[in-house]
Specification:
globular, alpha/beta, Carbamate kinase, 14 strands, 288 residues, two-stranded antiparallel ribbon
Length: 288
């Protein structure tokens, strides 16, 4: 028991400088993948966000919901089609996207955070004109490209002590709704908020120098080195657009971006509040 208490004390002592570092700072978390559909992991993630909020971190949660959208489309007899990883979204599909993301998924996360003793507010990119968008590609239908992020409604929620929980649906001046990629939305929202950091939860350990070998995890990458890693094939496939979002966030003013393994319980806390960290950190060259 004494050793257990000593270990707890050591953990708290190690975390204290990081708690001070992030006090009153904005941390944006992009949430999706396995951590979202596994109920045990979901509880752990919401618990981590609750803890961060209670120690003074201004948490913003940006979520996707691809599996839930696919499931609902199946129920209504619509086949899901993808082009370069993006869901082809006709008018009926974007209505379903809006219903699932802004309704079912968003409100369930808000409710779950509420059970953990924190105030959460469900928002979408349509609220307050938060995410302005236009069609990304005519072949994709109502898939949106972000033209502007207006962060005022998010800042208002943070100032009142809420965790904003944001579903990634955007709109235009003609009242059209658009399905927005969650990684892209999180990067742009983090930049608009001048966030201290962006955490992107994925289904891999981070960037591995040797595919499949977690011992070759690259813990830190300068954004200027990322194109070389892409040319070498170290960053490849579906990780390329995720990394491009990381780079954009850094170049738009976010101090650090982390890609972490959402399949690991308490991965957010391990990344933010320990010396070792967990995944891959992207930073501007020369920063620490």
């Amino acid at each position: 028991m004494a050793m257990d208490n000593q270990m707890r004390a050591e953990v708290l002592a190690q975390a204290l400088p990081y708690i001070r570092k992030y006090d009153e700072r904005i941390v944006v978390v992009k949430y999706g993948g396995n951590a979202m559909i596994n109920e045990e992991l979901k509880l752990a993630v919401m618990g981590d966000l609750s803890l961060l909020s209670q120690i003074g971190v201004k948490v913003v949660l940006v979520h996707g919901g691809g599996p839930e959208i696919t499931d609902m489309l199946k129920r209504v007899g619509k086949e899901s089609k993808f082009v370069n990883g993006l869901r082809v979204t006709d008018k009926e599909t974007v209505d379903i996207v809006q219903m699932v993301l802004c309704g079912k998924v968003n409100k369930s996360l808000v409710s779950l955070l509420g059970t953990m003793g924190v105030k959460a507010m469900g928002l979408s990119g349509l609220d307050g004109g938060m995410i302005e968008a236009r069609p990304l590609n005519a072949d994709l239908g109502y898939v949106g490209e972000i033209t502007k992020v207006n962060p005022e409604i998010i800042l208002d929620a943070l100032d009142k002590g809420y965790i904003p929980v944001i579903s990634t649906v955007g709109g235009d001046k003609m009242a059209n709704s658009y399905n927005i990629n969650a990684d892209t939305a999180a990067a742009r929202i983090a930049a608009a908020l001048r966030a201290e950091c962006l955490i992107s939860m994925t289904d891999i350990e981070g960037i591995l120098r040797e595919k499949g070998d977690k011992d070759t995890l690259i813990s830190s990458i300068n954004v200027s080195d990322a194109p070389m890693l892409m040319r070498e094939g170290i960053i490849s496939g579906g990780m390329i657009p995720k990394v491009e979002c990381c780079i954009e966030a850094i170049r738009r003013g976010v101090n650090r971006v982390f890609i972490i393994d959402g399949r690991v319980k308490h991965s957010i806390l391990m990344e933010l509040l320990t010396d070792e960290g967990l995944g891959t950190m992207f930073k501007q060259g020369g920063t620490v």
